[in-house]
């Protein structure tokens, strides 16, 4: 099938590459010309395991190309996936600017399109958005009707950054919200699901995505709540979570105590859901606690550092890891960036290293910190080392170059602990 992908970030590019790998003809669209050029040269603008190889293959065999010309992409596709960002506004509510612009452009292009178009919205949106914002905007811009000229469905994305390729190739479920079956049938034909398919209305599909992420965030905050007591009592939180994880009603994932959740999804989706509760006159008690516990973890971490080495002012601190988790270059809402912010307000001198995320870190922190390209350079003459991301590279580190070998681990990742003063955040 001929496919267009609007917005080629973490979701859009991976979706496009996987669909092109299945033999479909894919056109990726983005407003960012630099991203488009990189994709056409088969150089991924993001870090994801397995992406470089597959991108190269589908660009070389001409199954995937990229453009900034959305109109041309819509003219040449039968199904269009909208994957633009839906970040938070300062008050936590969802910012639909990118989506509104993209939908308007798709509608305008549809006006001149001869054939039928299936439109799949993948961006995360609060319940009511597809029906009340997306559908009217397409009708208004195109002057066309559904399901006569186009069909619209909502298909939330559940991929994990760092495992995005494998999650897209083998999703655990396919959720489709629709009012007619044309688009959903085309979607199923394109993705050929071998997982459970849940077909429902728009707003249920929209809420499934938020409920999914809110539950994951809750698990992490629960693990941190238990972990904080563990630390106080001298108990290893990981022995506790490993044991409870054997209970099939609990499961062993997302129970790692530490610096908490970050990234472009869990914090913003929890905030948008909290905001949706308030909009509808409800009090999101559990979600509020989940967010509060998460926000406190970075402060607890810096407090622990002060307890270990005293005032941080003027101290040389090595921060290992700025990505919000291992396997990605994404630093959006990364707990590490928050830790660095706190260190800087306390007058510390911060030097950072991350195997993949330095480019994005520079974009966030500019010249406020020093950047280095190796673990050894980061540790050189440092008074303290803070481990903020669970990169496997940090398991067996030689801390010999540090001035004072004090290491505080926020991710339960360090395995080689001889010759250092080691402290875990919750263990
Ligand atoms: N990143 C994840 O792990 C993940 C997982 C599940 C769901 N989601 C959701 O998927 C959506 C996309 O997330 P992402 O992380 O891929 O975002 P992203 O910021 O990485 O990518 C969005 C892209 O859309 C482009 N864009 C914006 N407006 C455009 C327009 N009018 N035309 C063409 N391109 C446009 C931007 O330039 C950017 O490249 C969000 O709603 C997010 O919540 C993300």
UniProtKB/TrEMBL annotation:
Keywords: NAD, Oxidoreductase. Residues 318-416 form the UDP-glucose/GDP-mannose dehydrogenase C-terminal domain. The active site is at 265 (nucleophile). GO terms for molecular function: NAD binding; UDP-glucose 6-dehydrogenase activity. NAD(+) binds at residues 30, 35, 86, 124, 161, 268, 332. Pathway: Nucleotide-sugar biosynthesis; UDP-alpha-D-glucuronate biosynthesis; UDP-alpha-D-glucuronate from UDP-alpha-D-glucose: step 1/1. Substrate binds at residues 158-161, 209, 254-258, 262, 325. InterPro entries: 6-PGluconate_DH-like_C_sf, NAD(P)-bd_dom_sf, UDP-Glc/GDP-Man, UDP-Glc/GDP-Man_DH_C, UDP-Glc/GDP-Man_DH_C_sf, UDP-Glc/GDP-Man_DH_dimer, UDP-Glc/GDP-Man_DH_N, UDPglc_DH_bac. GO terms for biological process: polysaccharide biosynthetic process; UDP-glucuronate biosynthetic process. It catalyses: UDP-alpha-D-glucose + 2 NAD(+) + H2O = UDP-alpha-D-glucuronate + 2 NADH + 3 H(+). Its EC number is 1.1.1.22. The keyword Oxidoreductase applies. Pfam families: UDPG_MGDP_dh (PF00984), UDPG_MGDP_dh_C (PF03720), UDPG_MGDP_dh_N (PF03721). SMART domains: UDPG_MGDP_dh_C. Belongs to the UDP-glucose/GDP-mannose dehydrogenase family. NCBIfam families: NDP-sugDHase (TIGR03026). This is UDP-glucose 6-dehydrogenase. The lineage of its organism: Archaea, Candidatus Undinarchaeota, Candidatus Undinarchaeia, Candidatus Naiadarchaeales, Candidatus Naiadarchaeaceae.
């Amino acid at each position: 099938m001929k496919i267009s992908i609007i917005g080629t970030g973490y979701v859009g590019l991976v979706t496009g590459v996987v669909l092109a790998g299945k033999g479909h003809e894919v056109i990726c669209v983005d407003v960012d010309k630099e991203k488009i050029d990189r994709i056409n040269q088969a150089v991924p603008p993001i870090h994801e395991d397995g992406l470089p190889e597959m991108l190269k293959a589908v660009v070389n065999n001409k199954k995937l190309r990229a453009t900034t010309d959305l109109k041309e992409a819509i003219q040449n596709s039968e199904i269009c996936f909208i994957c633009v960002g839906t970040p938070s506004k300062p008050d936590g509510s969802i910012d639909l600017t990118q989506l509104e612009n993209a939908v308007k452009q798709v509608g305008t292009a549809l006006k001149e399109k001869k054939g039928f178009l299936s439109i799949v919205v993948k961006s995360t949106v609060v319940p009511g958005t597809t029906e009340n914002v997306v559908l009217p905007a397409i009708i208004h811009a195109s002057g066309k009707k559904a399901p006569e000229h186009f069909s619209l469905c909502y298909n939330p994305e559940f991929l994990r950054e760092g495992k995005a390729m494998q999650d897209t190739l083998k999703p655990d479920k396919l959720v489709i919200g629709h009012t007619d079956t044309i688009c959903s049938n085309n979607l199923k034909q394109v993705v050929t699901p071998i997982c459970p398919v849940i077909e429902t209305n728009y707003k249920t599909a929209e809420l499934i995505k938020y409920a999914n992420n809110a539950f994951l965030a809750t698990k992490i905050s629960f693990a941190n709540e238990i972990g904080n007591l563990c630390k106080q009592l001298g108990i290893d939180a990981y022995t506790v979570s490993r044991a409870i994880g054997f209970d099939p009603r609990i499961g062993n994932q997302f129970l790692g105590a530490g610096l908490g959740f970050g990234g472009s999804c869990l914090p913003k989706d929890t905030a948008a859901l909290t905001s949706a509760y308030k909009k509808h006159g409800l009090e999101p008690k559990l979600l509020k606690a989940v967010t509060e516990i998460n926000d406190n973890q970075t402060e607890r971490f810096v407090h622990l550092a002060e307890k270990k080495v005293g005032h941080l002012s003027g101290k040389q601190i090595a921060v290992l890891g700025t990505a919000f988790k291992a396997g990605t270059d994404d630093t959006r809402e990364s707990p590490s960036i928050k830790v660095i912010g706190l260190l800087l307000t306390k007058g510390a001198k911060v030097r950072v290293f991350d195997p993949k995320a330095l480019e994005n870190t520079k974009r966030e922190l500019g010249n406020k910190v020093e950047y280095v390209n190796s673990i050894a350079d980061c540790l050189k003459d440092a008074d303290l080392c803070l481990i903020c991301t669970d990169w496997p590279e940090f398991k067996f580190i030689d801390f010999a170059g540090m001035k004072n070998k004090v290491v505080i681990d926020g991710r339960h990742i360090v395995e080689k602990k001889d010759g250092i003063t080691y402290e875990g955040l919750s263990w």
